[in-house]
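ingest -> fold -> write
write: protein_1
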Amino acid sequence: SDCCYMFPTNACGLCKQGDTLQTLLWATEVEYEGGKNVACGIIDNILNAEEDGSPTCSSAKDDYFDSCCFNKCSLCDSGQLAWDFVIDYYDDTSKTCGDIEAIFAADEVESNSKECSSVKIDYQDLCCFTPPVSPCDLCPEYVHWDDAVEFDGEESTCKEATAMLKREEEFSDTCSKARENMGEKCCYELCNICGEELSLDWDAVVEYEGNRIACGEFKPIFGRNEIEEGDETCDEVQTAYRDFCCYTPPSVPCNLCQTETDFLDAYLGVEVDFWGSAMNCSDVYDYLIRRIESDSDTCSSAKESSIIGDCCYKKCTICSRNQLQDMEQNVELEGDVISCLQLHTVRTSNIAVNSSDCVSMQSQFSNSCCYDAPETPCVLCAGGTTRKDLEVDFNGGTETCEFVANFVANRENNGTEECTSSMDEFQEFCCMDKCSLCKETEQVDWDAYVEFDSKEEMSCGSFDWYFTSNSIEKGTDQCTDLQGDFGERCCYEPIDYSIPSCSLCKKGEAWYDLNGNVLVYFEGSNKTCTEVSNSLFRKAEDESGFCDAARTEYFTPCCFEKCDLCQGAQLDANVEVAYNETATTCLELGLQFVTDIIMEGSEDCNAAREILWEPCCYITPTEPCVLCQSNTASQGDIRDDVSITFYDSTTTCFDLNSFLVSREEQVGFMCQAAKSELQESCCYQECSICGSGGNLYWDNPTTFNDISFACGELTWILSGNSVEEGSEECSQMQENYFADCCNGPSELIPNAGNKCELCPSGKDWYAQVIDDGKPMTCLELDTVLLQKGIFKDSAECEDAKRDFSNQCCYTPPERPCNLCQLGQKSYSVLDQTVVYNGADTNCYGIYNYLWTRLETEDDACLVTQNDLFDECCYSKCSICGEDYQLDQEMIVTHEGDDGTVISMGCSEIENSYIGINQITQASEQCARIQQQHWSSCCYDIPCELCVSGDQEYELLVDEPLTYMGAVRTCGDLAVLAERDFSQSDVCKSTKNDIFDYCCFKECNLCKEPDQAINWNRPLTYEGLASTCLDVYMNLRTSRVQAGDDRCQSIQFTVSHECCYKMPTNQCSLCQSSNGTFLNTNWNIEVNYQGEVVTCGDVNAKLSSEELDGILCLSARDDLWNQCCTPQQGGNTGLGGILPQLAPEVSDSTELGQSSSDLDTGRENGGGYANDGEFASTTFFRRNGSHSSHSYLYTALMVLPMSIATLLITLL
C-alpha cells in the first residue's frame, strides 16, 4: 500500500493555473521538505499523484510555483509551428524552427520579454502558419528530396518546397502552380517489381547482392536509392526476381480449412509433407489462399489429402453459444496475468474445441471471461442522454460515463436490483437532459437559414442537429445562449392543422399560381415569394388578420392566374403535340405554362389555346358510353384482356371501354358502332348461383371442398375465376348449390339478418374455440349462435362476445410482424416443431400469428424474432442466386436424391421442389441442383444503368457527362451499357463510375410509405403550387432528391395538405354491407357538407376514408337513395341486413393453402407464404369487394388511373 496509489481524476500539475499551463524548469533545484534540495521536475512528479485543488497540491503551488515555473515565450502563439523547417538564424547559423522553441525553454525567455518580441518579428512569418483543412502535397508519394528547384522566387530544394506547401490548401492556386512548375522535377514513381497486374509475395525469400532478403524488402531498398519505375536498375531487378516474388492472385482463393458448413483455423506449429517438402501448416494455408484458385486441381488435391486433417481445427471458444465475451477482465494463466481479450484471441490459438486443454480452459475461465446477455438491457440514462466523456470511479478504476452506460446495458437486465443500483450511483453524474434549439411546443423552420461559428449559412434544420450530435446539456449557459441567439430565427409555434392554413395566392374559393422567384421585402429581409408563401402556410391561419395583411401586400407581385388551355374542358394528358418546335405532351405543356409564367388572357395564352385546344381538350360526355351496357340498361362484365380491332387499331376490351366512357356519349355513333361490333366479343354476364330462378340467401350454410362456408362466399369463387353465365362450370355450380343457397332462408339460421356479430373488425374464422364442451372453429361458432337463436343486442350475444372475442377477433396490424425478416431481407419458414413459451408449436403457426396480429415495432415481435429466427427461418436455395434471372418457361430433366429422373419446369424446381424439401442456400444439395440446372434455367439480362439492388432509380436521360474521353448524355451511356450483361465487369465498372451522376431517386411528397397523395388538392407552394401534382412536378424539374434538406423541408410543409393514410378498407358510397356494389348515379347533384356536388364528387372525397368510418357511414345513410341504384335483377337483403365481411383477409390469400407452402410468399412480400401453384379449385376471399360491380364505376375510375400511369411513364 505504501508503493501504490489511486491515480487521480484530475492530477495536480505544479505549473498549472486554472486552464493555463506554464513551462516547468525541470532541473532547477529548490529546498523541499526536511531541508533537502530537490529538482522541480521531481516535485511535479510527486504532485501528479494528488488531485488538483487538494490541500497538498495548493500548498505546494504556493511554495514552489514562482521558483519552478515561468511563462515561456511561444514563437507561434496559437498558430502551427513548422518544427523541421530550416532557417538562417542569427550569427549565420542554420537552425530549425523547433530549435528556436528549445532555445526559449533553455534560456528561460519570458513571453513578455523584448527578446521574445524581437525573435517573433524576425521568424514568426517563416516558422508559423495556420494549418489548412486539406494540406497541399507536392507529389502523390515519392520526392527527390535534395534536387534543387526555384520556389517562391528563391533557390530551394524539393524537400523545402514540400514542407512550405504543407501550409497551403490543396485546391489553392499556389498549390496548383507549384505542382505544375516543380512536379516533374521533384516527383517520381517508385520501381514496382510486380507492376500493376501482379501481386507481391512479401514473405518469399530471394538472394540479392549476396544477402537473403524477403521480396517485401525491395520496396524500402528502392526508396532509399530513389530507383524509379522504368530506369535500368528497376528493369534488371524486375527481370531477375518477378517470377519468384510475384503472382496472379486467385479470383476465388483456395481455403484449405473451409468446409461446406464452417471455416476452420490452421495450426501454427505443425509440420506436414507438402509436395515433398516439410512445411508448416500455416505456410501451406497462406500459400494456397494467396496463389491457388478454389476450383483448381491443386486445391482439390490439397483438400483431399491427409493435410487437411493434420492442419485444420475448430478453435476452442471459452464461452458457450449464447454468451458474450468479456474483454476487460484479467485472469491468471500459467503464472501470467492476462486480459480475457488475450485469452479469447491469442491464448486459444492451436487449441481445438472439445480437446482436454479446451475443456480445462472453459472450466477455469468461463465464469470470469463470459457473461449472459440481458434479455431487456438496463438503460442507465432512460429518458435522457449520457455525458460521454465525463469520468467516474467504476469497478476500482476510472472510466467514462459512456463506458459505464455500455457496461451496464451489456450485463444487467432492466428492473433488476443491479440495474437500479447502477442508476442510483451514476445517474446524478452521468445523465443529463439534452438541449433542444426549439421549445417543446415549437417546430424548426427548415427554410430559415443562420450563420454559426463563422461557417457558411446552414438551414435551421441542419443547425438543430448540432445540438443533438454535440450533446449540449439543457439548462447550461451554452444551451441558453444558443437558444437566445437562434431560437427566434429558427423556431415557430405551429398552427392547428385542423384549421385551414394561410395560402398567399388564394382569394375566396379561387386559387392562383405563385411566381416563386420574385423578390419582396418580408420580415426584415429580401425573400422570394416562395419563401413568403411557405412561411405563411406554416405559421398563420387562413382567416387571421396577419394572413389578410400579407395577401394585401404580396398578392399582386407574387400571384398570377395560369393560362387554362382547356377552359373547363378535360385535358387529354397523354396526347403528344409539337409546340414551339418542341415535341411534348398536353400535360407537360400545361405544367410548362406555370414554369414560364404564361398568364390567363395573355397573347401567349390565347395563341396556344387557338393551336392546341382541338388536340389537347375534350368535353366529358353527359351520359358516358359503357361498352357492356345494353340499350335496356342491363349491365354486363367486360373481358379485360381480350384483344380486338376497332377503327383499324388493335387494343383490348378494357382499354376501349375506358376510352368510350371518358369521350363518347351513350347515343353517339362511335358508341353504338362499338356495341354492335364488339359486345359479343368483349362482354359477358357473370355466373349467378341462383340464376334467374331465385334469390341468394347470403348466410345460408353450405359445404365447398369439405369446408363450411356461407353461400355468399361462393360468389367470390365465381367472381375470382370470371365464370360466365351459361358455361358448363356455371351450370355445375348452380346444380350443386341452388338448393342450399336459393330456396329461402336455411332452417339452420332463422333470423340471419339479426345475427350476433362477435367481432367489430377482424375475425379469425379458423381459430379453434370450445363451445359447450365441443371444439370448433370461429366460423362454425358463427353458425351455432344462429342455430341457438342468439341475436344481436341480447344478453347471450354479449356473453358470447365476452367469452370468444379474444380467440376469434383481432385488429389487423398496419405493418405486420415478419418472423423471418432480418434487416431488408426476408427468409423462408421451416416446417418445424419448436418449443416456445413452454408449449410445442409449429413455425408456420407462429409465423402466421405474428403476421396477422402484431406490428413490426411491437416488443413481442422483436423478442419472438430474436428467440426463434435461428430455429424457424432459413435462406432458401435459389438456382440462379440473386444476380441472374430464372427462365420460368424452361423444362429440364431433374435427377432426385434417390436417382429418380423426371421432367420439371425451372420455376417448379425453384418454387415448389426446393421449398417442400427445405433446401438451404450453400448446402451440398443446393450446390448439386445449381450445378445440374444453372446453365439451362438461368440467364443474364442487359445492363441497366440505374438499377441498384432491388431498387430502380430514374435515368437522367439528357444529363451531359464526360466519360472515357467523350461527352455524351446519360441516356446515350445507358444505351451503350445495355450492350453488356448485368453481371459483366464492364457493366459493374460503368455503374460504379457514373451511377451517382446519371441516376436520380425522386423526393416523395409524403413522409410515410403507406401514405397516398391527393394529386388535385389545391394549395400554394413553390412555382407550381396550384395542386399537389404541381408541387410534385416541380420537385422533379428541380432535381430534388430523396433525403436532402430541400426534400425534407418540402415534405414537412406540404405533407399535411397533400398526403393521407390509405384506408385499410376503402369507402365507396354505393358499396353494400355484404361487399357488393350498386350502380352510382355519378352525375346526380346532391347537397353534401353544405355544397351542391355530384354523387361522383362525393365518392371521390370518400375514397380516402375507411369503409366503417363515421364520414363514410354518414354519407351512405344520407345519400344512399339519391346516389345508388341496384343493378339489373336486384339483390335482396341490401340496406344493412347482410353481414359485413371481414376486412382483414387479403385478396391474395388462398384458403386451401397448406403449411408446407409457406416460404415463397414471404420472400415475395405476401402476408401468407405459398410455394405451390393455384390448383383448379383455387379461389379467393376478398376484402369486402368483388368484380361484379358496375363497370360504369370502373370506367370512370380509368381517367385518374391513366393520369397516374402517364406520370409514371413520363417520369
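write: protein_2
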Amino acid sequence: GDLRGCEAMATSAVNGEPALPIPERPSSQPGSGRNPKEARSAILQKIAELTAENKLLKLQLCERDDRIRQLEEHVSQAPRSARQIASMDDTGLLSQLKPPERLSKAAFATAPAPKAMSGTELEHLQALSRLERQLKDAGITLPRRIDLASQSVGGTSEKCVEDLLADINCKGCQLVFRQSELVRLVEYVQVNVYVTIHGEDRRLVEKEEVNVHTGTQRSLMLPVTEMIRTDEDWSSAAVRALHRKVGLSPAKQKQCLVIDAGSHQTTLTSDADSEFPSLQTEVRTHSVTANIGQDHLNGDLLGSIGLPNGSDFVTMDKREGGTHDLHVFMWKSCEDERNSRIEAFREYLASHGVDTSLFGTGSMKSLYQFYTEVRETQESSLKEVTCSSKDGNTTMYNSTSSELLRTMSLVELKVIARTPYRTLSLVSNEQYLDDGRRRKVSQMLVHKLRDGETWQSAWKLAIADRLGFRKDLVDTCFEVEEGSEEFKETVRWSAGYPLRTLYKVWTVTVKVPEPDHPALEVLGLPNGQSFVSRQGTIGTNKRGRLHVWTWEVVVDEMGAGQQTATAFEDLCTSLREAESLAAQTSREASVLSLGLDAPMNRILDALQNALSKMVHIDTAFGEVDLQALSQSSEASANPTGLMEFVSATFTQNSKPRPRRNSVSQKRDAPRTVSMDSLPAVLDTGNLGEGRFGVLADMRSAMTDWNADFFDLQVQCPSALQTYGEVQFGPLCQSAFHVGQHVACAFLSRVASDYYHNPYHNALHAAQVCHLMTWLLRSFGLKLKGLERAGNIIAALCHDMKHFGRNNAFVIASSHPLALVYNDQAVLENMHAAACYAALQEGENGETLLMNLPPDDKAALRTQIIRLILSTDMSEHFQSISKFRVKRSAEGVCAEKWEDRNFLAQMCIKAADIGHSALPWETHVKWSERVAQEFYAQGDVEREMGLPVSALCDRNSTGDFGKSQKGFLEFVCLPLFEELALVTLSEMGFDSKPKTTLQALEERASHDSRKSWKSAATVATNGVRTNCIANLTANAQTWIEDEGTVSALSQRLRDGQPSED
C-alpha cells in the first residue's frame, strides 16, 4: 500500500497535479514550503528506500521457503511424529508458519532470520546428491536418512546412503565399475604370524572380539585381519594391524618379525553384501606370512603377546568412533589345524566321487599337495559340472551325470622383441625344481591365475615374477599387443591327479617396444642372449625353481635364413646409398673450397669399413645355428642345496648393476714376449734348493695343465712366491723396467696378504695363475710384456685378503665392506683395491710402477680391475652368454685389446673353478677344502642368527656326491665347452676393402672368409683333451666312488681337517 501511494504521489508530482491537498504556504514564512520539483525528489528517494527494503524481504522469504521445502521433502520420505519434527525445527520456522497472504509486513519484520547451513553441511549434501545420482544411474536404490548431519534419529539398523558415504570418506571402500556394473570394492590384509615353540609350529589366531561398550562378542578364529584403506598398500596395512590389534609397535615389528613378501597371495570373492543388499561387493584379501625368529624368544621382549610359552593374551584398541574393542588371541598348533582341514577336504572329494585312496600312490601327488594347491595357494579350483562323456576333448556339459573337475586358469605370454635384423621370441627350454629335478620344456611364459584373477591384472606380475624383472619398469619396457588375446578351453586327464582338469588358457602377445632399453640387459636384450631367472624361494619344500630362457628367432613364411639375410641386405643397401651420397658430396666445389674434402673422405672410409663388417657378420650368422647358441649344457639331477646355491651365487634377479666405465687402451709396451717363450736358463739361485721339488724341468711343468701344486707346497712352503718368481720374474725388466728384487718384494707382500683359509689361500692363487696362463698359451696368443704381466698380477692377486666368506654373507651381515662397495661385487672390489695398494708399495720408494709412463699405468690398472672383477660368480651365466654370441657372430680378434681382455676374463673365470678339470686326486682335495670353508661360514651364520646359506650347513649335507656332480656339469662344463670352441683371428676384419661392390660380391665366397680367419688357431685339442676330459671323469667318479665320497662327507660333518 505504501508503495502504491508513493507511485500515485510521484505520478501526480510529475504531471503537476498533486494527489493529496497541499496546504498553502503561510506568507509569514517565505520559502518554507516545497515546490513540485522538491516534492518529486523526496518522493523518489522514498521509493528507492522502500524498494531496497522490499528486495531484502523477498530474499529472506526465498531462503525460508527453501528451508521449508527441504524439511517437507524429508518428512514425506520418512514420516515423523510431531515431536520429532519440532525437534528438527532448530530455527523456530514451523511454529511461525502461516499462509503467505496473511503475513503482514510487521510479522516479517519481527521474524528471526533463518539459520544458514554451514559449509560442512553443504558439502555433505552435495556429496550425498552426487552419490545418489551415481547409484541411480547404475540402477541401485539405497535408503536415506533425514538428518543432514548423518546422525541416526530412527531405530532402523539398515545401511543407507549416508553409511556408504561415510565408508567412502573414511577410505574404507571405493566404488568401481566391473563390466559396466557398479561394485563396492573392499580390501583386507591377513597376516599369518608363525613361531616355533618347543619344536612345534604355531600360528597366531584371533579367537574372539568383544565390544566393551555394547558387550557384543564375536567368535572369529582368524589370523590378524585389518581393512586396507584406499590410500595405503597391503604392507602398510599389515604393519598397522599388528600395531593396533596385537600391540606390536613398528619398531618392535622391525626387530622381531620377518615378513615374507614372497608369500603374498591375493584372493578375490564377489557376492551380494549383507550390509548393502542391492549393491554388489567385491572383497579382495591379501594374505602374507610373518615369522618370529628363535633368537627373539629369549627374555621378555615378546612377553606381551604370550611368548615364549605360547600363552593366550588379550589386547585392547580404540576405534575411530571412540569405542573400545578387546581382542583375544591364541597360538594355535599348525599341525592340528592343517590336519582337520585336510580331513574335511578329503571328505569333500569323496562325497563327489573322487577316489581319494589313489593320492600318494605311484606318480600321483599326495592329498596334502592337492589341498595346498586348491585351498592355500589357490593355483587351481574345484568345479562340479555335468558332462556327456569322459573324452579328453570334451568341452560341452549337457547330461545329467555329475563330475568334479580340477579347474586351472592359465595365461600364456608370447613375448616378442623386434631387433633391427631379426624378430625374437622368448622361450623356456628347461627348468630346475627345488628338489633338484631337471625338466626339459619348450614353452612360453606361463602364469597360473588364482581364483578371481584376470589375465589383464596378472600379465605384469607374471613378467616380474617369472623373469625376475623390476615391477616398476614393466609398463615402460613391455606392452600388450591390442587384439592379440585368444582363449581356449579343454578338459583332459592330468598326470598326478585322480580327476580330470579343465584348462582355461588365455594366449596374449606382449611386445618389447625398445629392445635396447638399458633395463632389458638383464634379460639378454638386445643381442638375444640366454639368461637364468629364479622364481620363488629356492629351498626344501619352498616350491622355487630356476628357469633357463632362450630368445629364439621367429620363423615366418620366408624362413629364418631368408629373413635374417633380407634384414642385412636392407642395411647394406642403406649403407651403400650413404656411401654414394658421401662420395658425391666430397666432390662438390663448395666442399673443396672450404677444405672439407679430407673430413668427407674419412666419413667415406668409415662407411666403407662399416659395410664390409656387415658383410662379414651376415656371413657369420649364416653359418651359426642360432637355436644352438642359446642352449645350456645338460646337467644331471641336482640336489636341492645345489640349486639354491646356484641361484644365490650365479644369478642376478635384482636390478642390473651399473656398468663400470673402462678405459680402452691401445698402447702397449714396445717389447713383445710370446707366451711360450719362457727363458731357456732360469736364475735358480734365488729359488732355493728344492722349492719346486719333483718338477725338475721347470719349462715342462709350466706347460703341464695337471701340475700338482699340493706337491709344490710340500717342498716349498711359499708356493705363491716361488711360482710368481718363475712366471713374473723374467718380465720385470721388459715390462716394468725394474730389477728382479722389486718383483720379489711385491710377491712377498702379496703372499703375506693371503690368510690361512682352507680354500681361498695363497696356494689357490698360484694354482689359478698357472691354469690361466696355460689356457691363454693354448690359444697361441702372443701378448706384449706389460699385458702379459697384468694377467699374471691379476691371477696372483684375485683373492687377496679373502677371509673365507662369500658376498652373500658379507651383505647379509652388514659387513663394513658391503657399506663401502654398496653391495656390488664386494669381495672382488676389495681384492682389486688390495692388489693396487700392493703395487704402489715398496722399500725405499722402489715400486713396480715407478718407471711406467702414465698411459701404461692407466692401461694396467684397467686391465687388472677388469680381470679381478670378472671373477664375481654372480655374472657367470651372463658372461658365458655374451662370450658365446661374441665367438659365434664375429670371432675373437687377437689384434684388438678388448677381445684379448675379454678372452683373458673368461680364462681367469675358468681358472678360478679350474680344480674341477684337474685329475681326480687333486680335484677331490680342493673340493674338500671348499666344503670346509662353506661349513665354517654356516657355523658362523648360525651363531649370528642369520639364515644358513645353501651348501653351508654341515648338519644337512644331503647327497654330497650328486651335489658335486651337478656343480661340475651345470656350472663348470659350459664354460670350458665355450673355451674349447674358440677360434682366434690374428688378422681381424679387413680395415679397408678395395670397393664396396667387391665386398658384396665376396659375401658368399669361401676365400673371403679365409681372408679374416686364415691364421686362426683352434684350441679344441688342448682344452677338450685335458680340461673337459678330466671334468667329465670327475663328475662320474663322484657317483661311482661311494667309499671316498662317504668318508669325505663324514669328515666334513665331524669337522675333521682334510687328510692333506
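write: annotation protein_2
The mean pLDDT is 75.
The first helix runs from residue 2 to 15.
pipeline exit 0
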